[in-house]
DNA sequence: GTGGTCTAGACCACT
DNA sequence: GTGGTCTAGACCACA
């Protein structure tokens, strides 16, 4: 399904969360699709089941998946999901910080915009 | 000089680093300006001197400041500093991640670009 | 601060969550108040620190508290928090279910309303 | 007879119990009416017979249905059923919890009452 | 089989 | 000292 970067400084559970969000929002995983069980994904990724469970709990709390005890975990319909204002604000701050980092490096505005445009191009499917 | 947000989830030392970078890159602090000693800044900000020392060590490692034994710590000439490619790549990844977060929220590309434009406007002085 | 009902069928972490919400929303704990550390509350309640940490994580995700690494966990300003529509809907369903339970017992509408009025009276401080 | 919400987080057996209670208390199913056998209902709902059997056991324990060996399962006379005080207390606690959830969201008393009134209106047939 | 919860104990970063 | 993360392994309810 995807791979983890064990050398990354990002938490494993966060990596799972991001990869799953990517698959869900991009449409690779569609609403009501069953996703691998906690134990299954844990054995595929070679991590502890609790770590996967933690990621799933977080994804569920954010509305990306839903879970039915004894049956498994499924992809939610993110299309019909209203954007949570608290989360949007958090994401905006994250964008602000990342652009500040470019500024602190002393590169000029034009080059910063080029970098951002490049990122948008990488996401050709967006919108 | 600047204030800390003790309620922020950002580490205090990181806040000090970012604020100092802001002052240096924006030109408020100029090359060879003396900056407060570790103890002095610690008492002004009401934080542990170890925290300030850590921030200074990091700023020095990144070339924003330099220390002269027995005389103090001074602002380096960031203009003449070549952009470190490793740091640039790290910042690019940060930008990529932050834009991904917007994508994961399910907002459309137009709105994402508006948010980014807004951030650039807030930095009216850039370039 | 509060006590747990170890005989309850409610999860311990959920009990911690509810008790903390009660203290925060009722105003006993005010914005920026420091709440007991994970380890401290765990030893007071005689439960595993991970259980308390789980409750704190959930409370933070819902915006009731915020945490600063190395310094502790604090009460957020819930007044300024917009009501999350997903959570409100969930709570409405919960209300609907609980009233259905009264209906299934075969009691009449009047008596059901009396029970509800009694609950509101118990929360004399509300509004 | 009724449908299950396989996406719901409620246990299937609980959904069967609630739907049966609804049909019985509302009068759609009348005392001594025969209800489908475990196997029959299981095949209609496309669920495991064990799940239906569990639901029937629970309904029988609570006095909503009764079984005659070799003949089938029938609706009990709920009118003549005294309200079980233990169950009533349990339902009251459930109501109390659900209203607490509204309180924790920070909505005011008026709005909470509106939500409850709406739920009562949805049950126009009650009483 | 599924996920949910709890315990126990380790290691890390930050203050 | 603080919280955050991960592992390991146990028990439970549900299907």
Account of the protein in words:
Chain A is mostly helical and 127 residues long. Chain A folds into two domains: 12-80, Orthogonal Bundle (Arc Repressor Mutant, subunit A), CATH 1.10.10.10; 85-123. The first copy, chain A, is 54% helix and 8% strand. Chain A has helices at 12-25, 38-45, 49-61, 85-104, 109-122; strands spanning 34-35, 65-68, 72-75. Chain A has a three-stranded antiparallel β-sheet with strand order 1-3-2. In chain A, strand 2 and strand 3 form a beta hairpin. In chain A, helix 2 packs across helix 3. The longest helix of chain A is centred in the C-terminal third of the chain and has 20 residues, at 85-104. Chain A is globular. The mean pLDDT of chain A is 93. Chains in contact: A-B, A-C, A-D, B-C, C-D. The structure holds a DNA duplex (15 and 15 nucleotides).
* Shape field of chain A: globular
Rounded average pLDDT of chain A? 93
- Rg of Cα set of chain A: 17 Å
CATH superfamily of the largest domain in chain A: Winged helix-like DNA-binding domain superfamily/Winged helix DNA-binding domain
- Largest beta sheet of chain A, briefly? 3 strands, antiparallel
Terminal residue distance of chain A: 24 Å
Question: Could you name the CATH topology of the largest domain in chain A?
Answer: Arc Repressor Mutant, subunit A
CATH class membership of the largest domain in chain A = Mainly Alpha
Strand order of the largest sheet of chain A: 1-3-2
The secondary structure category of chain A is mainly alpha
Q: Which two chains have the most extensive interface, and how many residues on each?
A: A-B, 41 and 41 residues
Give helix % range of chain A: 40-55%
The ordered H/E elements of chain A are HEHHEEHH
Q: What CATH architecture label of the largest domain in chain A applies?
A: Orthogonal Bundle
Low-confidence stretches of chain A: none
Number of helices of chain A: 5
Indicate how many domains the architecture of chain A comprises.
Answer: 2
Number of strands of chain A: 3
Quaternary arrangement of the chains shown? homotetramer
